[in-house]
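1st attempt posting a full record on here, be nice pls
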Amino acid sequence: MILSHDATGSGPHPLVFVHGWCCNRAHMAGLFHHFAKTHHVIAVDLPGHGGTELAGVPATFDAFSGVLADFM
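the predicted structure (as tokens):
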């Protein structure tokens, strides 16, 4: 599954921003822009949130963590 995401910046170790329940990557905008000055940053929308369809993924933290691991 491809997660909707934004990515920018550069650096050897990316920072991945993951929103909380019932939110989306826009909630991470302040951190995203701040750290993009010095790091490669990625902000994702979990399944069923923001621009990512649920697409049959169970709405559980276990399922979301598996999708995130696959994405990374």
